[in-house]
Amino acid sequence: MKLRGSSYVVLALSVLFAATAWVVRTQVNFRDRDIARIQEGGNTTRGTAQFLIQRFGFTQEAIQTGRSIFHHNFGSDENSGCNGMPCKLRNQQASRSWPQSKFEAGACETCHSTPSGSAGFGPNEQKIFRAGNHIRPNDMFGGGLIQQLGIEATEDLIAARRKGRALITHNEVDYSMGLGIRPGGTVEPDLVVRPFGRKGTHSHLRSFISFAAFEHLGIQSQDGFQCSSDNKNENGRCEDPIVAGLDPDGDGIPDELTQGSLSLIEFYLVNYPVPGRGPITAEVTRGDRLFKTIGCTDCHRPEMRVKRDPRVEHITVFWNEKSNRFEAERRLLRHSVDDGYVDPDRQRSVPLVVPNYKPFVVPLYADLRRHDMGSKMSDANDEKGVSKRVFMTRPLWGVGTYTTFLDDGSTKTLEEAILRHGGEALTTRNRFAKLSPQKQSDLVRFLKSLILFNVDDVLTAKIPITKGDLP
User: Fold this and answer.
1) How many Cβ atoms sit within 10 Å of the Cβ of residue 205?
2) Which of 322, 351, 389, 433 is a good FRET partner for 198, with 20 to 30 A between their CA atoms?
3) Can you tell me the mean pLDDT for 236-253?
């Protein structure tokens, strides 16, 4: 299933966040300001990242700016750095990276390119390489919910250890099972659940973005490189003030990605839409039952619940059988709080926008644990202290749109991907293998109903919003 593409139009993002009753004056002028060097500021400092993120009516612009950074081509940007290389040696067709790198990227969207115009997955031709392993980049849909599930699972595990209880989360995920609590195990001994990275290496989007910006774009973030490890939170944010003007890699470009610009791309991805559903046919319904019956849901859990949803808005798509088309659902997840701030130009109050932090059921089809997947799914080498046989459970909520499968993109069909499962998933794999061809087909049809979509199609109303809070 392939949804229509459209050109990237920043102004179309006004669909994403409801307009206020008064016209918003632009706070970020792209003609005058380097998009990667926006200041962090505070919620009373106009034009800064935190003002845009926190002030009601400007969150729309925060999303726009974060999206612009995601799509920005740093490879042709003279103001971006070169990752320690002389800038004159960089590859003008892409970007820059370590000299021994086999892959280079000019923008975040280079690796997260499908569906078009979205923070999607990377097709096989856009693989990245690490420790001699081939990696197909995952999509970034629903990033804020995945992050929150990890945060709350960590809180549950630490509280359980403190009270001497079993290491089971409120979503009934038992982290003492499988590989156990050890370095490279089901979870690390610190009990921090790190859902980002196929080996489970990052707990927060911010640290994941900072890492990826340097490894694949050659861009050093202030939070990632201008403060020591002792000065960082688990999320990768510096606790002490940033010192401007530093150039840790000596490429002649200081402040390559400021704390403020990092906050804006983080805010954009925290609020990124959730994958959708295609037509739910009789075959899909039968396949859904089989998916549960043979044990796939032991790891690919259909639903998990966050206690405090950090997003300000929810968007997804679904197939409307009556209208015979894809339609979108939109729900506002925020409220405003008047803290007394008055806009100096208009002399009127501009309240804070605050997430409602209500519970939300996440149809992730994952369990946020590492598993031994056996020799047939193994990498070439261990990576980041994790065995070549061990991976985080990959979410399946958009798997129906993927063009290749598994972490390295080495399989072309879902059937082949399932049959490559081993280790902790061997029993389930064998049950699938014993199903009749028709039942195997039904199960695959179910998986193909879990889809990503072209976000531009929603933002430009090609996929109309018909459910929830209408624009």
Assistant:
1) 25
2) 433
3) 84
